[in-house]
Amino acid sequence: NENIETLLDFVQDIDISEQSVEKEKPIIASEIKMYQDNADWQALYLTLNSLYHHHPIKLDIAGSIKSIYEINRDNLYQYYQTFYHPSNMILFICGNVKVEEVSELIINNQNKKTFSDITKKLVKVNEPTSIVSSELIKKMSINNNKISLNFKVNEFIMDAFKQDICMDLLMNMLFSEKNDFYLDLLNNEKITAEYYYSYQQDQVLNYAFISFEFVSDDIDYLKHYLINFFKQDIATLINKKQFEIAKAKYIGRFIKLFNNPEAIANTFISYYFLDYDLFNSLELIKTISFNDIKQVSSLFNLDNHSFTIIKPLE
Predict the structure, then answer these.
(1) What Cα–Cα distance (Å) separates residue 167 from each residue in 92, 149, 160, 258, 298?
(2) At residue 284, does pLDDT exceed 80?
(3) Residues 6 or more apart from 206 whose CB is under 8 A from it?
(4) For residues 248 and 161, what is the distance between their CA atoms, to the nearest angstrom?
(5) At a CB cut-off of 8 Å and minimum separation 6, what does 215 contact?
(6) Which strands, in side-by-side order, build the sheet including 195-202?
(7) Helix, strand, or coil (residue 201)
(8) Which of 223, 234, 229 minimizes the C-alpha distance to 307?
(9) DSSP per-residue letters across 94-130
(10) pLDDT tens-digit series, residues 116-158
């Protein structure tokens, strides 16, 4: 009980001095410089800048050194009062607790506090469906080429949560380290074992993109291979047996997370802010069909692809 009260009080009170703000600025500035030397971080933002014209996702989350030095105490209070507000928060408690007792504790804690009324709205960005550039190149102090193939996804063709799961299933069926796509490139020594693929979406902020990341000494071969691969109808590369196995594995992993209170809490919260309900998710997963998987394969659209490359300094 004492820890819950401490947590609530900790995030609902703030005391900032101008001195503390000024002291923090050079620390953040040095962190920004560190990220500028991080090839993986730079690869991510090179990718986002190749895909998005106006969407703020393309902006480095740390900001610029110039923007850091423009922040003052009043800015921080305004931000804090807007976003660290009960209407914008969720408290999730997972464990061997007495629900009624904890609920009363929280209600009493909040009733002792006064919060200002706030008005905020989500600003919709007028983002074109086109990409910014089909290829962006950056040179850094690295030993090998880092190459990304990226697809801008402009629509949710089904319920967003369902689309997220379907893409996860499809990509694991086709692009995992056990599949021919990866093994052909690796065994022919066209890439190293350093390989990563992802699908990221947020229907609230209205963006989605697919990315494949490789390390390779043969950029031209890899680009040619990838373009030819995605010229195919990739829905023809999967079958129902693969789908049933992938779906069973997904359900197994989903059920397994309920063995871990921390995993339950983290997953519930991440789902909640995206308007998903963790405890209804299993039923939705079970309804996913092979045709759903074939449908999301259309999102690998070469009309909206980019290559982003980080090369070693000469």
Answers:
(1) 28, 16, 11, 23, 11
(2) yes
(3) 55, 124, 125, 127
(4) 18
(5) 144, 145, 146, 147, 191, 192, 194, 195
(6) 135-140, 305-312, 145-152, 207-216, 195-202
(7) strand
(8) 223
(9) -SS--HHHHHHHHHHHHHT---------PPPP---SS
(10) 887 777 788 889 999 999 999 999 999 999 999 999 999 999 9
Q: What is the DSSP string of 146-197?
A: EEEEEEE----SS-HHHHHHHHHHHHHHHHSTTSHHHHHHHHTTSS-S-EEE
CA 10, CA 5: separation in Å to the nearest integer? 8
Cα gap 48→308, rounded to integer Å? 9
Nearest to 25 by CA among 60, 66, 83: 66
In degrees rounded to 5, what are phi and psi of residue 237? Answer: -95, 0
pLDDT of residue 127: 94
Cβ neighbours of 47 (radius 10 Å): 22
Please tell me the distance from the alpha carbon of residue 40 to that of residue 140, in angstroms, as a whole number: 11
Q: Which residue, chain included where needed, has tokens 């629509």?
A: 155
Task: Work out the pLDDT band at 87, boundaries 50, 70, 90.
Answer: confident
Q: Which amino acid is at 14?
A: I
d(CA 156, CA 46): 24
Q: How far is CA 143 from CA 33, 39, 78, 122, 268, in A?
A: 20, 11, 44, 42, 41
User: In this structure, are strands 305-312 and 135-140 parallel, antiparallel, or unpaired?
Assistant: parallel
Residue 253 CA to residue 255 CA, distance in Å, equals: 6
Distance, first Cα to last Cα, the chain: 60
